[in-house]
Amino acid sequence: MTIIRAKDYAQMSWHAAKLIAAQVVLKPNCVLGLATGSSPVGAYQELVKSYRMGALDFSGVKTVNLDEYVGLDAGHEQSYARFMRENLFDHVNIDPGNTNIPNGMNPDEAAECARYDKLIADFGGIDLQLLGLGPNGHIGFNEPDDAFPTGTHKVALTDATIQANKRFFASEADVPRFAYTMGIRDIMQAAHVVMVVSGEGKAGIVKDAFFGPVTPRIPASILQLHAHFTLVADEAALSKL
Ligand code: F6R
What we know:
Number of strands: 10
Helix content: 25-40%
Bound molecules: fructose -6-phosphate
Strand content: 15-25%
C-alpha cells in the first residue's frame, strides 16, 4: 500500500487525477473503473481541465462504474449514470458507448449481475479502479458482512449507508434500499486500485480499514492485500494514524 498524503481535498483530487491521467496516457485504450459520491468529484474536475488543455484523449478509454441504485433509471437526478455524465462523461471526448454502469432498472438480478461480470471479463479486467470509502468501510456498495462478496451482486444498503446518502435525496424515504455493485473480486482483480478519502469524518474508518485486521466487517480492509493499492488522502482523513 502506498499512501499519498495531501494537504486538503483539492490537493488530494490533483494527485488522484494525475494517477488516472498517467494511466490514460500510458494506455490510451485502458479500462477505468470509476466511482461516484463526493470524494472523486474534484479528481473528475481535474481530468476535465487536462482534457480541455489538450493533455488527455479519452476516445479509446472504456469505463466500468462500481455501482448503481436499483430502481433508478439512467435519467433520474440521483442515478449514478447521470452523476457520471454530469461530472465527467459530458465534458470529455469519451464515446458514450464505451461507458458502462450496472442497469438499475433490470429486474432480473441474476441476468444483470452476470452481464456486468462478463463485460468486465471481456474487457480483460480493469487497469485502474478508483474508489471512495464508505463511512462503514464499504467499497462500491460491498457492505460489512460475514464474508467478502465476490462478483457483481444486488445488495441491501445498510442503515449507515442510507443515512450517509440521504443528503443527496429529498428525504430519507427516497433513498433506494438496494443497489447493484461490483464485487470484491472484481475490485481486487484491478491492476491498480486508487482510493480517494477526505475529511476528519473518515479518519476513524481509514485507521480501522488499513491499520487493523483484514475482515469482511470492514470491506475496504481487504485492500491491504492488493499488490498495487494507492491511498490518496488528505491530512484530516489521516489524522488518526
Ligand atoms: C460510489 C461508491 C461508494 C462511495 C462511498 C463514499 O460509487 O461506490 O462506495 O465511494 O460511499 O462516498 P463519498 O465519497 O460520498 O463519501
